[in-house]
Amino acid sequence: MHLMVRPTRKPLHGELLVPPSKYHVHRALILASLADGTSRIKGVSDARHVQYTVRLLRDLGTRIDVEGDTYVVRGGRYRPRRATVTAGSSGTTLYFMLGLAALAEAPVTVTGQKYFRRRPVGPLLDALRQLGVSLDSADGCPPVHVTPGRPTGGRVVIPGTLSQWISGLLLLAPFATGPTVVEVRGELNERPYVELTVAMMRRFGLRVSVSGDWRRFEIEPGQSARPADLTLPPDIGSAAFGIAAAALHPSDVLLRGITRLDGDPHDHPEIGLLDVLRRMGVPMTVDPAAGGVRIRHDGTRLRGTTVDCREVPDMLPVLSTLAALAEGETVFEHVGHVRLKESDRVTAMLQLNAMGADLTLEGDRLRVRGVPTLTGARLSSYNDHRILMSLALAGTRAHGVTSLTYPQAYRISYPGFLSDLTGLGLRLSVEQGRAPASPASPSEHLRYWAAHRPADTALVDVRDGYDTEITWRELDQRVDRAAATLLALGVRPGESVAYQLPNWAEFVEVSLAALRIGAVCCPLMPILRQREMAFALRRSGARVLLIADSFRNRDHRRETESWFAEDPAGRARVRHVAVVSADGEEVELPADGSGPAWHDWGATTAAAHVDREALAARRPASDALAQLLFTSGTTGEPKGVLHRNDTLGHAARLQAERLGLDDRDVVFVPSPLAHQTGFLYGMWLAVALGVPQVVQAHWNPRTALRAVAEHGATFVQAATPFLADLLKEVEAGERTARTLRTFVVTGAAVPRNLAERATSVLGTAICGAFGTTETCLGSLSAPDDPPEKAWGTDGRAMSGVGLRVTDDAGQALPAGLEGNFEVRSPTGFVGYLDRPDLTAEAWTADGWYRTGDLAVIDSDGYVRITGRVKDVINRGGEKVPVAEIEELLHQHPSVDEVAVVGTPDERLGERACAFVSLVDGADLDLEAMRKYLDHHQVSKHYWPERLELVDRLPRNPAGKVQKFVLRQWAEARCAPALQEQKA
User: Fold this and answer.
1) What are the backbone dihedrals phi and psi of residue 857, each rounded to the nearest 5 degrees, phi first?
2) What is the pLDDT of residues 927-983, one digit of tens each?
């Protein structure tokens, strides 16, 4: 993907709300984390660099909540939740926290993103060692291992190259056991940023004495930070891009939030930018009535000036763009340290010359001679937010189209850049552009990880007796051999490969192999038998079928051989059956006959000849079909749901963004890989993130808990029973699940008492979600949502997804009313295989998918599924609130599981029947249940009128209660009473 920039010809008009200053946010959050008590910081920032600071502090044990537009920080001792914490790509976070990590109660390794691990921090590390901090770095770059212990203080000398080095020392010094003196050697760059650090420290009660030239600092030992409440000022650095856009074009633009054009660095370290802009001729005036700065510009060219980059180093990129189109010459003095930022920003801006500009680097000086116009070009942003935004503005004044790499880099500091600037009239969009396409499937991600992290763990196959670990290189090689085997068996692009396999490594291998050659994955649940298998094979048209030799006391090989012989038509086009061994031993194959050819999958793939060029030639397009999943068919024949590569990839990305999943996570997959939960939100997600996936075929909570602990699993998506079983195992005292950070519960809303216990006992964020095979996840809560929203609902809409509730006439209902739940999503399916009639029925006339569920959407946008349309119990015209009754009964101390269904009734139409499985040793009868509901003031009309005790509720392999089975049970048990009524 590229950021595509097209020339803007029309005047700009509109207003922008300037976000809060990220410079203040970083410092305020860090100082609040050190203050024992609660601080409230008004001015929440969406900037990714700020999010890195928040995440690192949370990993050190600081509680940071977001309440509206305010951070609520509960500071105190650092009690690390992780042995390794990352600053991401934020230099400020890295430099400030390297020393402060010594205040933690346990050793901590501080690292950053890959390219940060090449960033030299030797002078800062040397200075920290002079203060008595015990740390270690292999090459003077991150990662840095920090041993806990307060610094001793002393005299330390630091180069003035980067202000963040000085600020990092100042932030740590008050907590030393002895007095500290910090002296700056050589050129002092970025003094305003140091002034801001000192001013913010004083706001939190820390004392710093400063010399008049800001080159010597004296700090008393043994200080304590005090909590503070403060409101953060607007971010001049973000406002610079709105101002620059208005200055490059005829415009009438208001930047709301900036109320003055002068001030000192205590207000904002980049306040000096406004003076530079005025010298260049940008017509800015304060509009008190509107609460901002207004720019009315007729398009006249700006004029050149001289800029000292020691004062406004981060502004060089955007000022370079303005200078490139200004009259005369602009000279940027003292640019050396600007080359040490997220990229070499001086060299990066020399790309303007490719657009026809005239920039010359002369030692420590950048000279820009203005030109009247530019030409569109293909440029690199170097994944640097300021470079991307600055070159994008240049492209709006160019002839032709400009494309920029790393189109999302602006999110690092100014997440609203794209929407704000396009709102003014600029023509910016993220498109495929002329760049190579992004990975079309996880098999291409696999190629990348195999090349860049070959020895890291990619997959763990968990069995009750042992685990098997597979590296990225090994997995890639296995997938190559599997793909070559499929080609040799005649599989063609767009053709389905059917496989009935448990959660074994071979499932992942076959899936990625099919995707690598452009085939369609058609996984089939291991529980399916002849009728369902025959239907799926006929409908899919698969010529290759893979099966396990045996699993869960079933001999799949013999069963398949038998029904193929009995029902030749049932195997449809199948020409090859490959058998996967459960234990890696040689497979006994049937004798040759008139049926399909049989193969030992392990032996066949081991002997396969791999032609990488032939495999590469089969690389699928991003919009190629990737998956065929058959629904359970509980309401009729199974439906074959078709999905594309790009929609599945987008769905996985949406979840990762909502939950904050990244390359530090480990994905646990106990849900069947043949179900969308396991396939997409387990296997696909893990490969896309480049993290280990831990797959478990036979559900055993004790084995699961061991696997979570031993392999450091951090994320799992599964149904409620998986969560309940894990919780019971931990409560039994066997093990802990301390690494598990996020558990997304799907299939049904998690009962409140279960979620509360799980949150407390497991220490895991429980998140509600709603999704279908057809649409993937449509709603999902986030770990930092309020608890009653996070696990008390089915989440809120994913980015770009529309949710609505309608009445039976199709009219949208307001918040708080129950109705038919409908979804409009960019991750929707292509259609039902060979059933255009069913596909058409699934969609409303205006393009919304009919889920078949009933739901309520509250005023905050959170969804609560109240039942299936077909599950509604209509008792004499009164609709029983099934979900509420189930939730209430689940809280009864005797109840382990509960589901309420309707039973036929001659007079009322339906009556409610509660199926309950009890806690071990507990007892419950109908009268006790009624007294319980009466005590909770539930209307008698809603009371279940039958109680059936069962050992366990019937569930499908994904853990969802099969209410159609319960209705069959209820009708069978109620049949005699119904006959008496009729008589």
Assistant:
1) -110, 120
2) 999 999 988 877 777 789 999 999 989 887 666 788 878 888 888 876 554 444 444
In a shared domain, residues 174 and 290: no
| Residue with tokens 């502090």, as numbered in its chain | 57
Is the domain of 195 the same as that of 256? no
DSSP state of 308: E
**Which CATH number goes with the domain that contains 919?**
3.30.300.30
Q: What CATH number has the domain bearing residue 419?
A: 3.65.10.10
Q: Given phi > 0 = left and psi -120 to 50 = alpha, else beta, which region is 740? A: beta
Look at the block and give the residue holding tokens 């139409």: 909
Is residue 304 within 8 Å of residue 326, measured between CB atoms?
yes
Q: Which helix (H) or strand (E) holds 158?
A: strand 154-159
Q: How far apart are CA 386 and CA 10, in angstroms?
A: 25
Same domain, yes or no: 270 and 377? yes
Q: Give yes or no for residue 497 having a pLDDT over 70.
A: yes
Could you give the strand order of the β-sheet that contains 863-868, starting from the edge strand earlier in sequence?
A: 802-806, 819-824, 849-857, 863-868
- Positions annotated as catalytic residues are 314
Question: What own/partner pairs with CB < 8 Å and gap ≥ 24 does 257-263 have?
Answer: 257/17, 257/18, 257/291, 257/292, 258/18, 258/234, 258/286, 258/292, 258/293, 259/286, 259/288, 259/291, 259/292, 259/293, 260/286, 261/286, 261/293
Range of the domain at 382: 2-17+234-431
State the SS3 of 174-200.
HHCCCCEEEEEECCCCCHHHHHHHHHH
**Letter for the amino acid at 217?**
F
**DSSP H helical ranges for 498-644:** 505-516, 530-540, 556-566, 601-606, 612-617
Among candidate residues 183, 198, 230, the one where a domain is terminated? 230
CA-based end-to-end distance of the chain = 71
- Contacts with 921 (C-beta within 8 Å, 6 or more apart), sequence order: none
- Strands 625-630 and 358-362, by their bridges, are unpaired
In a domain, 853, yes or no: no
Task: Return the DSSP state at 705.
Answer: H
Residue 930 lies in a domain: yes
pLDDT digits (tens, 9 = 90+) for 71-111: 999 999 999 999 999 998 888 999 999 999 999 999 999 99
List the beta bridge partners of residue 777.
771
- Torsion-angle region of 245 (φ positive above 0: left; ψ -120 to 50: alpha; else: beta): alpha
Are 155 and 276 contained in the same domain?
no
What's the CA gap between 614 and 481, in Å, rounded?
12
Residue 252 lies in a domain: yes
Place of tokens 């366990």: 952
Residues 61 and 189 in one domain: yes
Residue 74 belongs to a domain: yes
State whether 180 and 250 are in the same domain.
no
Distances (CA, A) of 180 to 157, 201, 511, 741: 11, 15, 60, 39
Please give the tally of structural domains in the chain: 3
Distances (CA, A) of 455 to 368, 429, 467, 513, 523: 48, 38, 17, 20, 29
- What distances in angstroms separate CA 842 from CA 536, 642, 803, 809, one per listed residue? 21, 14, 15, 16
Coil/strand/helix, residue 339: helix
Q: Burial code of 777-786, b = ≥16 C-beta within 10 A, e = fewer?
A: bbbbbbbebe
Q: Is 466 helix (H, G, I), strand (E, B) or coil?
A: coil
Structure-token pair, residue 960: 């969802």
What are the residues whose beta carbons fall under 8 Å from the beta carbon of 404, sequence distance 6 or more?
Answer: 2, 3, 5, 379, 380, 381, 388, 391, 392, 395
Q: Write down which residue in 174, 205, 230 finishes a domain.
A: 230
User: Do residues 891 and 934 share a domain?
Assistant: yes
pLDDT in tens, 498-543: 999 999 999 999 999 999 999 999 999 998 888 788 889 999 999 9
Task: Give dist(CA 503, CA 722) in Å, integer.
Answer: 15
Give residues with Cβ within 8 angstroms of 623, minimum separation 6. Answer: 644, 645, 646
Same domain (yes/no): 223, 319: no
Provide the H-helix boundaries in 494-543.
505-516, 530-540
